[in-house]
């Protein structure tokens, strides 16, 4: 239930809809009960005889206006009060009385359904508002969490939580909001009316309620566990689908369609089996509660029937009253079934709420400190002060120290796994160091706001990450206020204007999913243009040319050189030909600096750098 109340916190902004929903449900339940009670005067009119058993006509006198004597007499008072006003209106004419009570019943059902509609009307805004805010909260949290969180999660499972689990809540927990007021009040009002009509018969009914509750709870005991299996398996096949769409070219190229098809079908088959068990358990709720309800009605028919048949002259339970009582008894069944389904839904929604709450409650180790510093400029240098870092157990950087003065270009080289890209991840604070500290202008980056830190940085990665949007909107990620002229200028600096100007809509051309309408070199030059448009003082280039052919590499290299002018740059290089003009080259091996200097100085050492150059056939 804790998860239920956690989800209900999101209903706070919509409390005015909740209040209107509750008020509407109160009147719905009230008029729902009164609509059955209103049957009593109609039955009295229909079954009332104008002759006594001896055949003599009975002369009726006008009823007197009743006097209220207290709660114990409320049933008789209400009946007498209605009879008095009905007589006043009809003048004792049975035909008019019949029309009067039928009109009364119609009005009661009209009001009941009007308030039922209003309750559902307000619930729509409440429920959909909560779902929207919850979905937004999950997405916002996903954006805030560090990359390390997602390295341990399947993308498909995250998608399942944001889509399927949130949707489950809409039709499980939040549908219970409707039941929290309407159905219990309907039962309370109905039982109150039943107690007024016949306390003895109502106490007999109460004997069956604990039995019904026990049986229903036994049926729903394992529902949460079954629901959790369904939701987890949905995450598995969504992950397979996401991987398939991402790697479709490789799958086809290696004739692996059958393998992935089998993997996907295995998951959907498990989902099919788990869903069948879950839904069949859910489907048992309604018929079981209805059967138990009919058993209760049968018991009432037996016991109440005996009371009517054995009724003496002073008995309050005549035939008409008993029929009204039976109607009220049946009126309990519908809300009881709804509450039964609601309890099942709470169990089912509990698994979804737990999975969503797991994301929302995840701790963000990279959260800004209180009173973190807003840094608006870069003035002197970047310092790596004896830092060490590990992703899991093994340190990938060990006691690394380096100072990069403002305006200088430093290249990091080394074999794969030597820690080059890790340095880029640490400067941008995608991860925090385990030991030591990274300083910008003498300030530990952990003391800065993450937003102001990254505002000083421009990033160009090996994989050009672009989005299914126009070139203009892709570039404006770095500077939302940029004009079209500034965008064109950035494209020229990045050597990209030469192909963008020939596109059908130039900068307004949509580049497709992940920019797939463009070549690798074109995508990379757009990502450089995006960094140029942001115009940060510090550039981080993480193997920006390693995935390109020679011609594209040449064009991109020119773009990079244009971009790095008058900026501080950290260049992570795989192709050593691209960093020969760097102010300093730092050679890494297993997370440690083994050599550092300019290109010619390192060649003269005939060490690790020389071997890397020879392997790439650069003399």
Automatic annotation (TrEMBL):
The name this protein carries in UniProt is ABC transporter ATP-binding protein
Q: Membrane-spanning residues where?
A: 18-39, 97-119, 187-216
Q: Which UniProt keywords apply?
A: ATP-binding, Membrane, Nucleotide-binding, Transmembrane, Transmembrane helix, Transport
The membrane topology term of the UniProt record is:
Multi-pass membrane protein
Q: Where in the cell is it found?
A: Cell membrane
Gene3D superfamilies from the xrefs?
ABC transporter type 1, transmembrane domain, P-loop containing nucleotide triphosphate hydrolases
- Name the major location: membrane
KW Transport (keyword) present: yes
One Pfam family named in its UniProt record: ABC_tran
User: ABC transmembrane type-1 domain location, by residue?
Assistant: 22-348
**Source taxonomy:** Bacteria, Pseudomonadati, Bacteroidota, Flavobacteriia, Flavobacteriales
Recorded GO CC terms:
plasma membrane
- Which GO molecular function terms does the record list? ABC-type oligopeptide transporter activity; ATP binding; ATP hydrolysis activity
Q: Where is the ABC transporter domain?
A: 382-615
